[in-house]
């Protein structure tokens, strides 16, 4: 079966490798809900004061019994000013991931997105990855995540490539093939003031290529959520909060809160492009002051009438059908059906890629071997 899966993936992409070069965006032809040019303009020409300020808080890497405590402490049971639950997105990779806890996060109303099966080094692996490799890392991970966490396959919409390393057109080809709708990997240091809004890859992007190679082809329907860089205390751009070189003292909560708000206001006081707070949980764990400042910032957002902490895919849905903030506030809250988890503790599971035996906490029947690339279900 594994051999058949690999042959299918190779066959699926042979015909799709010659992609048309993306042309400059034609605003007359590129129309919502399915196409949007790369621009700093607010969708449908809304005024900034009428535009909801979306805040996207995201965490990378596996979910485990240590970092879940942070998530429970600062994220659970939060509500925006429209009385709808706050949203957060988790870009989860496979190795050492606790799928029972992923199921818990999903049932809290958070978004689960994909961060690859292997998360392997060196970084050049992702830089040079073919469409086939990206399909195995992300297309197969979509099946893997749905299977072991027992969450709906169709709920998995987003991708972030490890190390923010783009691979040209490859990952976007795989996304298109597997119904993955958006990518949040691509930093911008040029379009920060005013910030760049999300857009599709139907046409050529104006976004600066910070970590090459960037996509050049026309790949209709795939959305880009730009990682709009913060500015640290020296004005240096940083895509992830934990990568900022010059930051406030780690014993000064007020300074950290001001630092966060200053970066937020670059969006809120200009074109209200979605504000990203992109971070790894370990940074909060080792810096409690930053964790408290983040919690205060979430309190601030939750109490603003025109700002909303939402899942990343919620931003895409709003852009497809943008409405003024007053109308947005009146919309019914989104609902979902919680997913049951019949817990199983599996192991030791032999691995086929190294000599390590693994344990897995899942919501399904235990696999035969440790799941990995080319055998995502461990059959």
UniProtKB/TrEMBL annotation:
Q: Where is the NodB homology domain?
A: 51-180
What's the protein called, per UniProt? Chitin deacetylase 8-like
Entry keywords, A to Z:
Signal
Q: Which GO terms describe its biological process?
A: carbohydrate metabolic process
Question: Mind telling me which InterPro entries this protein's record contains?
Answer: CE4, Glyco_hydro/deAcase_b/a-brl, NODB_dom
Q: Name one Pfam family in it.
A: Polysacc_deac_1
The molecular function terms of the Gene Ontology recorded here are:
hydrolase activity, acting on carbon-nitrogen (but not peptide) bonds
Q: Where is the signal peptide?
A: 1-16
Keyword Signal present in the record's keywords: the answer is: yes
Q: From what organism does this protein derive?
A: Galleria mellonella
What's the gene? LOC113513537
